[in-house]
Amino acid sequence: MAIRLVALLLVCLALSASAQTDPVELLLAQMTLEEKAGQLTQLGTVDTVTGPVIDQGSLTHPPMQTVGSVLGIYGAERTRQLQQSVVEGSRLHIPLLFAFDVIHGFRTLFPVPLAEAAAWDPDLSQRTARAAAMEASASGLHWTFAPMLDITRDPRWGRVVEGAGEDPFLGSALAVARVRGTHGDGPPNTSFMLSTAKHFVAYGAAEGGRDYNSADLSQRTLQEVYLPPFQAAVEAGADAVMPGFEELAGVPMHSNAPLLKGLLRGQWGFTGIIVSDRMGVHELIPHGVAASPADATRKALNAGVEIDMVSQSYSRNLPDLVRNGQVSLTTVDEAVRHILRAKQRLGLFENPYRYSDPARERAQTLTPQTRALAREAAQKSIVLLKNSGALLPLPKDLHTLLVVGSLATDAQATLGAWALAGNTNDTVTILEGIQRTVSPATQVTYVPGASPTSLDTQGIAAAQQAAQKADVVVAVLGETADMSGEAASRADLGLPGAQDALVQTLLETGKPVVIILMNGRPLSLSNSAQQATAILESWFLGSEMGQGVADVLFGDVNPSGKLPITFARSVGQVPIYYGYRNSGRPATGQNPYESTYLDLPSTPAYAFGFGLSYTTFAYSAPQLSTERLASTQSLNVRVTVTNTGQRAGDEIVQLYLRDDVASVARPVRRLRGFRKVHLAPGEARIVEFTLGPEDFALLDDDLLPVVEAGTFTLFVGGSSTTDNQATFEVTDSRRLHALGPAIPRQLRR
């Protein structure tokens, strides 16, 4: 007994000594309640407004010396000045965290995340996130509110542009890549930035596709579809998690203790910061679960939300809540500890100004290397949807080429939503890209014709006249940058404004029409638009959009992108996605009493994983390492892919899996692997995949993971609709402790 007491005493003395030398614990011991509340407060600025503000009446923003972090300020000189004022002007000299929404680049803009997801290239996403972090950190920023990991199957929701689309497996792969890219080599490198997995969770399931709206879904769907990318990000080392604006099954995410504390902290072991979204704490009041700012503060902090972004609820209410026993000091201290640990990890206690280096900012902003990467990312993100008669690629020596559509010269649209630090002077429009690429002898004519923002058709006649004189017409159509993103939901997914009328008129001339789509969501194209000779989905591609589009349009680059989200024929099909579960009366076309529409096919316009090339690819039947395996074993799958065309090209090989008969209804297929392979004309290559118990597993009636004995069918091909298949059997059933790592096998370290 005495020995145990001595040992315990020694441990306590060691911990005490450690606390005395640990700067975080030393600071905590000295801080007042008001100073702790300040560290849990994030100040919003007028520099970059990314959401609403509330009427503060006679109250003003707290002094910057009293808060822990600031949103929206950047620039090496400015952040250094503000940091100095805080470090020298505060009692404990605690440095600020400078935060910013670095969503798809900083000064150099890369494709919007939905576009980059079309590249199906985690290495590319890691490299663009790395380049963005290098630029942003050189501008004095420590923390980005990215990546956005919301799965969405409703393209009416404007923020679909910020995510990876509809699939949790692809979304998980890209989540890992973007977290790792934001980190780089990690501390003490000053290009390391804190990452934020947002918006936890099911924000993308907003009813009606209306931003901020309620989400109501089953526990099964939550666990199988919406949670995996977040778990993957946590496993990859995400530094922060941001709750969504929505309420989920009646509980707003900013007060959802079971998910924030129970799942995220408890089950997943997350040790980083939980930061509110802008005004998220205050909005517990209109949600109807808090009666006052003090009540909202109590509910949010007790649920696990550690930083209050912008609303000032914590700074004004938290000290009194602690004093009257409604919030424990232990809860406050743990939250403050997480924030101080982040500052310690960034090296800010040793040197508060290490990220604010004007020389590094000048050297690392808009470099030739980042612009080259932006061009590569733009090329790889383009999806060829249609190419009748092999019209594309266009020859560079056309006699006359007509470009129509106001978006062709819209520099802001090239950047897309959330281009907060971007500058339109730094971007290449589509018209400019075309003009730079064609032969000097080619006459390029530009006529606006129509705009997404107007129903005015007066310019269409001029476009018609010009089309009659052209060899080919390139129509740049779609959305403006502000038609997608936050607070940009749309009830109609067609081409806005007078663009459909423009297309119809152009088609009537009989000239070949190439549609280049600029958009931040899947569009439902009209019958007229579908009649175009060729269609390129080019999204919003960033600083090098015009050049990237021209590279593909004229054949310097063979398009390789595949859709990360389904394109509906009509908004009436929404939500539509490939991984649905069959009804008892699936659509077979053999019975009128099936799950179909009277006025529309149930199939999409363009399926998940679809994308054409300027060449063609053939697949062998999948070869399996065995046709019968135990629940503890892995299965190796091999398929030979051959370039059967005349051009070199990249093919994204996709593997899907179906549990043929299970104890619960399963999706008709689930993505479980993908590989990109480059093939010369006539070249064949074997592509291999490995499937393991986590791929065969499901959640049973009790939502517990289990591998069930039975047959499985796998599909390997160039889209989610492939019928190239093989069947195997798992011979026994087995309960699993967990579903396994959320990080896809190909990205595990």
The biggest beta sheet reads: 6 strands, mixed
Structural class estimated from helices and strands: alpha/beta
Name the poorly predicted regions. Answer: 4-15, 54-59
CATH architecture of the largest domain: Alpha-Beta Barrel
The average pLDDT value, as a whole number, equals 95
- Give the terminus-to-terminus CA distance: 45 Å
Fourth-tier CATH superfamily name of the largest domain: Glycoside hydrolase, family 3, N-terminal domain
Task: Tell me the domain tally.
Answer: 3
Strand content: 15-25%
- The number of E-state strands comes to 28
Helix content: 25-40%
Strand order of the largest sheet: 11-16-15-14-12-13
Number of helices: 23
